[in-house]
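Posting for a labmate who doesn't have an account.
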Amino acid sequence: MTDLFGIDAIASRLAESVPPAVRAVQKDLETNFRAVLRASLSKLDLVTREEFDTQTRVLQRTRERLAELEARLALLEGAPAAGK
């Protein structure tokens, strides 16, 4: 599974933050942190940054197109009717 949310980095930071006396079980803690984080994040309705950025670009293009169409419609509505 791709580490979409930086789970490995978060798990590593959590494992490194434990007291030195517990460092002997650091690898087990890191594995458990990773599993808990993945399970928790998989329950959330999240999108990747790439998906978010893609949708942001689509929305921007849609807004630009809408503005163009609104301006065009305003010109057409303001123009005198042909043949009258």
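Reply:
Got it, the structure tokens are right above this. The chain is about 70% helix and 0% strand.
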